[in-house]
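User: Show me a protein chain along with its predicted structure.
Assistant: Here is one chain, sequence first, then structure tokens.
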Amino acid sequence: MKRELTFELGLYALCIVLVGLLWHKPVVLTICYVAISVVALTKWHTKSDLLFYFVTFVLGPIGEFIAIYLGAWKYSKPLFLIPLWLPFLWGICALFMKNISETLLKGSGKP
């Protein structure tokens, strides 16, 4: 469990650090998130993992696109209202949330 939790929290920290450092370089950040997506999907590739990734890859940015279109906020350096890297981050976040929850439940002894 400790090894899994370290990987999951490391992935979380890496995504935060990358967006903080590379938000102004959207193509570079996108490449980083594509690479992280490949690593994450190599590790987590059950049907439910794939579903979590691809559903949030699509629905998360659609929700943000609508909110931005309606004036709720805006991103710097967007590509059609949202950054190029955003769908990948949504997918990574879904995998992270799903798998860290499962790891924590395993550690607590609950199914």
